[in-house]
Every structure is written in C-alpha cells, then in structure tokens.
Amino acid sequence: MMNYNELDGYKLFFEKVFPNMSDTDILNELWNFANTSLHKIEYPKAGEAWKDLKQSIDERSKGINKRGNTVYVRTFGNKKDRESEELLRCFYKHVYGIDFIKIDNSNNQKPTSVLQKYTDYSKKNSNKKKKLVNYQISHIFGKTLNYYAFAAPWNVVYLPQILDPFTGHESKGFLTREFTKKLQKMMLENYKDMIVEYNKKMESIFTDKIKSFKFQKEALITKFGKDRVEKFFDEIDKNFSKIELPKEEL
C-alpha cells in the first residue's frame, strides 16, 4: 500500500531523472541491469565451493586443523568491540564444545577470496581473471554471523556498487524491498538444493542449541551486559534461521 505521507529519497531522485517512468518501470530497469552485470558462482564450481565449505566446517568442528580449512564469520556488532566478538565465540563454543571460528577482519576477505577462486573475476589485478572496478561483495540473504552462509556460493555475489542502495542493508521503501526480493528469488532458483541442505543443517545443528544458549541469559548478561546480550539473541535468531523457500519447494 502506498504511503502518501512518506518521502522516499530514491524515488524522488528517479522522478527527477526519469519523470515519465513508473516505480515498476524503474524497478524493472534496475533489475535488468543487475541481472546482466552481477557475477555469481556458476555450476559446477558452485557445487565445489559448497562442498569445500562444508568440509572445512566438519573438520574444524572435530578439531582437525590444517591449512585451507579455516572457518570464517563476520563479527557481531562493532568489529573493534572485543566483548561482542567474545560473545559470538561463546555461542559457537556452546554449540560445538570448542572454539574454532575465525573473525574476518575486513568483513569480506573470505567471501572475496571465494568469489575470486570460483569465478572468472577479481577485484585485484590478475593475469587470469577479469578485473572488476566499482563492484562490491553482497550477501543476498545476510546471515554473516553464520559460517554456513558467510562465504556460501548461494549467498555471495559481485554486485556493482551503484546498486548497493537497493540491497536493503541501509535503505527501505518499495524499490529496496522489491529489488531485494528479485535478488533472493534468483539465488533460490539457482541454488535450491544447497539452500534446502542449509535449512536442514540449521534445524539439526542449531535449533535446540540456540534455545539452550538462551537459558543462560542471566549469566550472559552479568558477563556481557543486558543490551549486548538481548541484541545478540535477536541476531542469532536472524542469522541461524531457515531461508523461506517457494511454496512448491517446501
């Protein structure tokens, strides 16, 4: 439903630049550009990337440490906030009994390396890859605290930076909402089997562990503070939830 008391900065811009285009027309043009300019990990390399990620998690969770199987996630909250990082580590240790995650210091180093390895593109100069300029790494479903999603081939793409305002990270409104839906629909259609497997892992590994972790709320508040713990509980619900599939795929 249209909110006539709302001023959307993006819509105002497009109305000025393209006065004869409707919101739907603008959305379609944005999507046409995105669909032809973004770069994702294609099959069969996507299958290899997903297999490698799962193997690294399995090995690390069993205490098998070797070169190349480090498991990365993005930190919770401000990356300079050591207590928030410790809280995230505390959660993973509760799930597995050991601390084996590594925080991605740049927030995108691992997803960047995965995209570079399994696509024909790179953000750096390379003799073997096409260099991308004014592109960024985008997480289509978010879930950057979740090691099954942070660098997963079904969740990361190279996206032109000019499209960033429409990916939903820091913006709202019709264009952001509908553009994000289109991105997620594309990934769901391309990587259905992987996402189904991801959903099963969330249920089998994390559902009960999240509940038991939350039973420790008072002790966690004593150690980390009420605001931080309550915010973290909200984040783990978002980051370790299942991804909704189209009705016919349920």
From TrEMBL:
<protein>
    <submittedName>
        <fullName>Uncharacterized protein</fullName>
    </submittedName>
</protein>
